[in-house]
Design goal:
This is AAA-ATPase At5g40000-like. The protein has 470 residues and is of the alpha/beta class. It is built from 16 helices and 15 strands. The strands form 4 sheets. Strands 10-9-12-13-14-11-15 form a 7-stranded mixed β-sheet, with helices on both faces. It has a 4-stranded antiparallel β-sheet with strand order 1-8-7-6, with helices on one face. The structure holds adenosine-5'-triphosphate and magnesium ion (MG).
Length: 470
């Protein structure tokens, strides 16, 4: 017998008792009412006791097993509970009669979920039943019921499957946010360090124009990282990864960061170093970031320059006054590197650090040595392969033979340095109307103009050289 049946019979007995009491109140005088009330109360207690005894024996001989998953364990939240809830919400709603509508992400629209206290599920041919139970004190737990025959299948693999599936749906549905740091004058008792907005950038690796092989390498590196919890634990390293994106303006460095965040569903923390006064503020900001996030420092060459000036100033203070103001008055390169190496090692949560620069050669070697920045990614001028991706995004043209002008464009791209941003600008539809021929001709004009400019600049440079040596 399932537990629901026993609750049903107890409910009807209680209803009969209440009905009886209402009738008695109308018929009997007051002094008799008290005696009858006492009699009824004791009958009710006996009924409950009998019910418990009957439940005990029913459960003793029942072939069904129950596992409870409480919402909280003692003092902490039970993560399995929310994973189960999400998993059950995601089950097909085709046969449900009670649904609820929710929107987790602006970009995802309204999603219909089941809204029933009991859900039947099937795993490898075995039926199981889930039920959400709310206790009188408001505590909730999920009750899983299954036949004893399938005990090892359910306890060994089904429960793990449900929790894993639920967690991955939670990550997928997470509304990612873009955080920017506030000035420390705006911080209130360690709060309000970061302000944030919902992150809804449409960038993806699919639409990112770059060498397809390199792209694949980056995507698999990111995925391996995000699935690497056990691996990082095994090798005893902090679960973090550093990427240095370098290349000329408009080659897709910022776009790639958005694509990374969309791929992994991570938050972005855009760290503006000029708004940070000293190392201690930097430390507070970085420790206030959440797990599964990308910490970005754009144009690190400018920040490094700023740091170098600060270091010079600090050393002159030290020489003059014999004191070390480094940590109190400045953000230093060593401070930044210490946090990247040290702080996340302590908290053990997954973090990605991304630096971008237009000038790799300007960077301090300490900043970019391997191990600190695990992958150096160059984003370069637009190649023919990258152009084809842009042509597909902007003009719906797919493949080498998609348009007769492609051959001319290919030849021009081999001789001209043009950023993907400039190419995209020419391919962009005017007034939402795609005009393939016009866009491609505009691009050819832009390429020819750039090619001539670059040629004449090159000639001027050569002439200068000759003058110097002549
Ligand atoms: N590789 C690319 N693939 C697709 N679109 C690109 C690419 N590079 C640039 N773009 C387009 O050009 C615009 C500018 O690119 P983005 O801001 O990513 O360049 P960046 O390398 O960060 O430049 P900067 O060095 O100036 O910060 C983007 O909004 C995007 O539309
Ligand atoms: Mg940028």
């Amino acid at each position: 017998m399932m537990m629901g049946d026993s609750f049903g019979s107890m409910g009807s007995s209680m209803a009969s008792l209440f009905f009886l009491w209402a009738t008695i109140q109308q018929i009997f005088p007051n002094h008799l009412k008290i005696t009858i009330k006492e009699f009824l109360l004791s009958s009710f207690q006996q009924l409950c006791f009998a019910q418990r005894v009957s439940d005990y024996f029913t459960n003793l001989f029942s072939p069904y097993v129950e596992i409870n998953f409480p919402e909280s364990d003692e003092y902490s939240f039970n993560q399995a509970f929310s994973a189960i809830e999400t998993y059950l919400d995601s089950k097909s709603t085709d046969k449900s009669k009670r649904l609820k509508g929710s929107q987790v992400k602006e970009s995802k629209g309204l999603v219909l979920k089941r809204n029933e206290p009991k859900v039947k599920d099937e795993y490898k041919g075995v039926n199981v039943w889930w039920e959400i139970v709310v206790e009188t004190d408001g505590n909730r737990y999920y009750k899983l019921t299954f036949h004893n025959r399938a005990r090892s299948l359910i306890t060994d693999s089904y429960v793990k499957h449900v929790v894993q599936e639920g967690k991955s749906i939670i990550v997928k549905n997470k509304q990612t946010r873009l955080f920017t740091n506030n000035l420390s004058t705006q911080w209130v008792f360690g709060q309000n360090m970061w302000r944030s907005i919902a992150f809804e950038h449409p960038a993806s690796f699919e639409t990112l124009a770059m060498d397809p092989k390199k792209k694949e390498e980056i995507v698999s590196d990111l995925i391996a990282f995000s699935n690497g919890k056990e691996y990082y634990k095994k090798i005893g390293k902090a679960w973090k990864r550093g990427y240095l994106l370098y290349g000329p303006p408009g080659t897709g460095k910022s776009t790639m960061i958005s694509a990374m965040a969309n791929l992994l569903n991570y938050h972005i923390y855009d760290l503006e170093l000029t708004a940070v006064k000293n190392n201690s503020e930097l430390k507070k900001l970085l420790t206030a970031t959440s797990s599964k996030s990308i910490i970005v420092i754009e144009d690190i060459d400018c920040s490094a320059e700023f740091t170098a000036n600060r270091i010079k100033k600090e050393s002159s203070i030290r020489e003059r006054y014999g004191r070390d103001d480094k940590d109190e008055n400045a953000v230093t390169l060593s401070g930044l590197l210490n946090f990247i190496d040290g702080i996340w090692s302590a908290c053990g949560q997954e973090r990605i650090v991304v630096f971008t620069t237009n000038h790799l050669e300007k960077l301090d070697p300490a900043l970019i040595r391997r191990g600190r920045m695990d992958m150096h990614i160059e984003l370069s001028y637009c190649t023919y392969e990258a152009f084809k991706i842009l042509a597909k995004n902007y003009l719906d043209l797919d493949g080498d033979d998609a348009h007769p002008l492609f051959r001319e464009i290919k030849a021009l791209l081999e001789e001209t340095m043009i950023s993907p941003a400039d190419v995209a600008e020419n391919l962009m539809a005017r007034n939402h109307q795609i005009d393939v021929d016009k866009s491609l001709s505009l691009l050819i004009n832009a390429l020819e103009e750039k090619k001539d400019n670059q040629k004449s600049q090159q000639e001027k440079k050569t002439q200068k050289k000759f003058k110097i040596f002549g």
